[in-house]
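Morning run. Coffee first, then this:
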Amino acid sequence: MTRHGFVRRSRLPVGAEAAYAWHAREGALERLLPPWKNVRVVRRTGGLADGSQVELLLRVGPAPVAWVAEIRDCRPPEQFRDVQLRGPMAHWDHLHRFEPEGPRACTLEDRVEYALPAGPIGVAVDAAWV
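And here it is:
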């Protein structure tokens, strides 16, 4: 299984504590899901805490696919991680880090490590899908 990754950084006009708290609020995931994607939250257990789980239903082509992720490594207001337990990827690990830049700003770093299923076919669709 070949693993790939990417990092995206976004500067936010709020402190790390406020940014982390926003992500911990009920409905944050729903607000972050792009409206043009056919993805919805089906079930969740707990909030933004170690061991909590969320199940998403998404479409991969014409087929509905369940994606179950578990929250791990919560260290408010520094970071949390979501790891796929079951879903369309062979591997998915998404670390969210909040790096303070004073009391009124921070940088949110999203670090994703993933592997697609289906060997060479998965590699071929990698750029278009992920």
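The chain has a mean pLDDT of 90. Good start to the day.
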